[in-house]
Amino acid sequence: MNLFGLMEASGSAMQAERVRAEVVAANMANAETTRTESGGPYRRQHVVFEANAKATSFADVLGNSTSGSVASNLLPLGTAPNKAAGGVHIAGVVQDPASPLKRYDPGHPDAGPDGYVAYPDINPLTEMVDLMSATRAYGLNGSAVQAEKGMITAALDIAKG
């Protein structure tokens, strides 16, 4: 990991947590949506995170040189091995497979012939916990970036003399 590797990893985590918070907000906004473009009630969504691949380190290249060719492991000049090694990215946003909740409301325009309406299976308490978790993770990664900035500033002060 290079000097700015921590910032890249934390930045990728902050971006992923921001998307997670947006999905939670969309879930809360659509908690009472009974009609969507695809038909039926809104379906709760989840964000799936995936760890970024590890960067190719000098030790890896050196270790592979004993068993294979070094040239195949080297990257072209000026390219980074991986922008956010150790970071995270969004693998996808998936829909919750839970069946919708049925509530008896015969006066609702989307009520079936039996008088029941299909509502999304969204628990506001669960959504708030997810939102708080995303907010805290975002803040922690912001603190990590601030700590890295302090370390870089201290290193520059030492280099000045």
Describe the structure concisely.
It is found in: Bacterial flagellum basal body. It is built from three helices and four strands. The protein is of the alpha+beta class and 161 residues long.
Summarize the SSE layout with pairings.
Layout: H1 5-29, E1 45-51, H2 58-65, E2 88-95, E3 101-104, E4 116-119, H3 124-160
Antiparallel strand pairs: 1-2, 3-4
Helix pairs in contact: 1-3
Which descriptors apply to this entry?
161 residues; alpha+beta; two-stranded antiparallel sheet; 3 helices; FlgC; flagellum; Flagellar basal-body rod protein FlgC
Number of helices: 3
Class by SSE composition: alpha+beta
Beta-strand share of residues: 5-15%
**Quick check: average pLDDT?**
85
Termini separation: 26 Å
Q: What spatial order of strands do you see in the largest sheet? A: 1-2
Please explain how this structure is put together.
InterPro entries: Flag_bb_rod_N, Flagellar_basal_body_rod_CS, Flg_bb/hook_C_dom, FlgC. Keywords: Bacterial flagellum, Cell projection, Cilium, Flagellum. Residues 7-34 form the Flagellar basal body rod protein N-terminal domain. It is a single chain. The protein is α+β, with helices and mostly antiparallel strands and 161 residues long. It contains three helices and four strands, in the order H-E-H-E-E-E-H. It has helices at residues 5-29, 58-65, 124-160, and strands at residues 45-51, 88-95, 101-104, 116-119. The strands form two sheets. The chain has a two-stranded antiparallel sheet with strand order 1-2. Strands 3-4 form a two-stranded antiparallel sheet. The longest helix is centred in the last third of the chain and has 37 residues, at 124-160. The two termini are 26 Å apart. Mean pLDDT is 85; it is low at 69-83.
